[in-house]
Amino acid sequence: MVNNGLYVPTIVWNGATSIKLEGFWDDDDHKKVLYDKKAKNIIAFALGMDEFFKILNCKTTKEIWDTLETIQEGTEEANMTLMTSHNSDSE
C-alpha cells in the first residue's frame, strides 16, 4: 500500500517552510525523490494499456495507487448499487 505522495525536499528558514532548490538537495533528498519515480515506473510497466492510460496523468505514486484501487474495487457508491441490485435479484 502506498501511504504518502510525492516527496518534495523542503527547508525551514526563519520559521517558514519552503521548497529546496534542486542544487541544495542532499543525498537523502535525491534518494527520496528517486523512490517515488522508481515506484511510478514499476507500477506503470506492470499495467496493461487500458490501465496505463487511466493513470497517465497522475502526478504521484499515491495518486496512481488510489486510481488503480478505484478501478479494481470500484467506488463505494458503485459497490453499494451492485449489492442492492444483487440483493433484489435474489429475493
Account of the 3D structure:
- By secondary structure, this protein is mainly alpha-helical.
- It has one domain (10-90).
- Helix content is 60%, strand content 9%.
- The protein has four helices and two strands; from the N terminus they run E-E-H-H-H-H.
- It has helices spanning 27-46, 49-55, 61-73, 76-90, and strands at residues 10-13, 16-19.
- It has a two-stranded antiparallel sheet with strand order 1-2.
- The mean pLDDT is 81.
Residue ranges: pLDDT <50 for 5 or more in a row?
A: none
Note the main sheet.
2 strands, antiparallel
Which whole number gives the mean pLDDT? 81
Assembly annotation: single chain
Number of domains: 1
Name the helix and strand elements from N-terminus to C-terminus, one letter apiece: EEHHHH
Q: Overall 3D geometry?
A: elongated
Number of H/I helices:
4
User: Strand fraction band?
Assistant: 5-15%
Helix content: 55-70%
Count the strands?
2
Please tag this protein with its features.
about 90 residues; mainly alpha; 4 helices; single chain; 2 strands; two-stranded antiparallel sheet; elongated
Could you write a compact summary of the structure shown?
The protein has 91 residues and is mainly α. It has one domain (10-90).
